[in-house]
Amino acid sequence: MPFFVNVYELDRCYGGPEEGGWYYDAGEAIRSHPVPKRVLADKLAATLRARYDADAPRYPASSVCYEGGAFGVYVERHPAQSYPVARPRYE
Fold first, then answer.
1. What gap in Å lies between CA 47 and CA 30, rounded to an integer?
2. The predicted structure's pLDDT at residue 41
3. Which of 19, 49, 50, 72 has its CA 20 to 30 A from that of 58?
4. Of the ranges 18-27, 30-39, 62-71, which is most confident?
5. How many CB atoms lie within 10 A of CB 56?
6. What's the CA gap between 73 and 8, in Å, rounded?
7. How many angstroms separate the most distant Cα atoms in the chain?
8. Does 58 reside within a domain?
9. Domain that holds residue 59
């Protein structure tokens, strides 16, 4: 089973006003690179993290003051999939 080096554009979304307001993380799938071995996937991920400057999100953890350009690069066992699939609900 191959590994996938997946690139996501990250966002912080406003969920609603409950309990003083809440937010959730979202990721839009940008690219997916299939790689046969984990060691190769880790090397490619390091290269892509440098290219996308993807070490840390650029938005504050409790704010929607986000201007774009935050990326995440992950080694996963499936092709990139945007998340969340459905907007979360407050419970």
1. 16
2. 98
3. 19
4. 30-39
5. 7
6. 6
7. 46
8. yes
9. 1-8+30-86
